[in-house]
Amino acid sequence: MKTRIIAVIAALALFALTLTGCGPAKEPESASSAAPAVRETVTLGLLAGPTGVGAAQLLHRSTMEESANDYAYTVFSAPDEVTAKIVSGELDIAAVPTNLAAVLYKKTEGKVKLAAINTLGVLYLLTADGVSVASVEDLKGKTVYSSGQAAVPEYVFDYILDAAGIKDDVEVVYEAEHDAVIADLASGKAQIAVLPEPKVTAALAQVEGVSVALDLTEEWDKAAAVKGDAAVLSMGCVVVRSEFAEQHKAALDAFLAEYKASIEFMSDPANLEGASEMCETFGIIPKAAVAKKAIPNCNMTYVDGAEMKTQISAFYKILLNYNPASVGGALPDEDFYYSK
After folding, report:
1. Could you please report the per-residue DSSP string of 216-257?
2. d(CA 299, CA 104)
3. What's the pLDDT tens digit per position in 233-258?
4. Are 318 and 295 a contacting pair, CB within 8 Å?
5. What pTM, to 2 d.p., does this model score?
6. Fewer CB within 10 A of the terminal residue: the chain, N end or C end?
């Protein structure tokens, strides 16, 4: 009997050893292959409004730890706030106006590169109740309130007025903030105004009788045709510190891939509800209800590589001819353009 018991125990022990050697041996390998790679922390600066909207889904995925990198983000209200942070090295990547990218490149002596274009035209001309503007020519002899002096909005509007031959016949009053322009419309001080999204949506909601008269992206295209220019109105872009691009190329390329996917998600009408909520969550547009109306007019895009260079070079040439200081005094050289 003892012999039988010993034999059974030995057999069970051998069976258990077999299971240990064959079955579970694959489990650590499987767990190891499924484990996420170490996510690199990337500091990201965004501007509230259209330039920052495209990143909302990316930020959502980052908070869920589903993104390739861990994005430590800050949303700024003004471009100059972003400038200081990226020049100091506190930001690795930032979404900024396109002309500012060129200025930064010159200012930092090549320490910043252009990685992608993310926003096309987002400017609209609004009129108060009782004011009719059916074309740019109808602005002759009138006063227009706007924001964005010494930045892309000023250059774009002047370019359009110049092409129509009425640049000297329109008075443009510049306010320091978009909200000041909305206040001018509300008080009756302004009858005609130029604003970007999402401030256009905010103005339509806050000021009774205000309506959109002209899409300035369409008017830009008409003006470019008149002048024989092939430039696409490109207002927003993504820049990266050159040092970061050199030392963390894999992380940068992963960001660009995820950022492109994020822009596609945010641009898809089927995702509008969720995209709007993400904008509010991350402080890119204060209210989801405003974001829901503004996002379809934010003209998001994603262009990189050779196509980016061709598109923005033509735009920069126009800005240079209009005001050399708007692009840092000269066109950026080849090193300005990041390529994967």
Report:
1. HHHHHHHHHHHHT-------EEEEEEHHHHHH-HHHHHHHHH
2. 24
3. 999 999 999 999 999 999 999 999 99
4. no
5. 0.83
6. N
